[in-house]
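Students often ask why inverse folding is considered easier than folding. One informal answer: many sequences map to the same fold, so there is more than one right answer. In these notes we will look at a single instance of the problem. The structure comes first.
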C-alpha cells in the first residue's frame, strides 16, 4: 500500500517543522530590528556683527550676498548647546558650509560637521548634508556619516528655528538627530 503524502502524520510533521523554523527565526528577527537613537541639541546662530558665526564668503558678482540669493556661499561655526539657553553647557561646534542653491532662493544646501567636545562624545562627529527648505518649519537633512562614537552613522536630522531676533540676526536652531544603530 502506497503512503499517502496528505496523510495526517505528514501534515503534522510539516506544521511542526514550520513552527520550529519560526521559533528559531524569531530571535534573529528581533536582533535585526534597529533601535533608533535620538539626540537633541541646539545651534546658537549669529549672522551679524563682529562675533558672527555664519558669514557669507562669496557669491555672484553684482548680486547681494544673502540666504535667498542664488550662489551665495556661507561659512558656519555655530556653538552647540545642550538646551536652547545661550549660556547652556557647550557640547560642540557645528562647522561647515551653506550654499544658496536654488534659483528661487527657497533652498540652501547644508554640508556640516557636528563636532562634539562634551565628555560623552568628545572627539566624535556627525556629518549632515542635504537641502534645507528655508521656508518650511521643519527642515530635514541626512546624516551621512560620523566618527568616533558615531562611526558608520546613518539617519536624519530635523532643523527647526525655535527663536529668531530679526534685529540682531540671532537664532536658536533645534537639531534633532535620529540615528540607526551602528552595524559593524
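Output (designed amino acids):
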Amino acid at each position: 500500500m502506497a503512503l499517502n503524502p496528505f496523510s495526517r502524520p505528514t501534515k503534522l510533521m510539516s506544521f511542526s517543522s514550520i513552527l520550529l523554523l519560526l521559533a528559531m527565526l524569531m530571535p534573529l528577527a528581533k536582533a535585526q530590528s534597529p533601535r533608533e537613537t535620538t539626540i537633541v541639541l541646539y545651534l546658537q546662530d549669529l549672522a551679524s556683527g563682529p562675533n558672527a558665526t555664519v558669514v557669507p564668503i562669496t557669491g555672484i558678482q553684482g548680486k547681494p550676498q544673502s540666504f535667498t540669493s542664488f550662489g551665495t556661499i556661507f561659512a558656519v561655526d555655530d556653538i552647540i548647546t545642550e538646551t536652547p539657553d545661550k549660556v547652556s553647557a557647550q557640547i560642540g561646534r557645528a562647522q561647515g558650509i551653506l550654499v544658496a542653491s536654488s534659483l528661487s532662493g527657497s533652498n540652501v544646501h547644508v554640508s556640516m560637521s557636528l563636532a562634539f567636545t562634551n565628555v560623552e562624545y568628545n572627539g566624535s562627529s556627525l556629518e549632515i548634508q542635504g537641502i534645507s527648505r528655508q521656508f518650511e518649519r521643519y527642515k530635514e537633512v541626512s546624516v551621512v556619516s560620523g566618527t568616533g562614537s558615531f562611526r558608520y552613522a546613518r539617519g536624519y536630522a530635523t532643523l527647526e528655528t525655535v527663536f529668531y531676533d530679526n534685529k540682531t540676526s540671532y537664532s536658536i536652531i533645534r537639531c534633532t538627530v535620529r540615528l540607526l544603530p551602528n552595524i559593524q
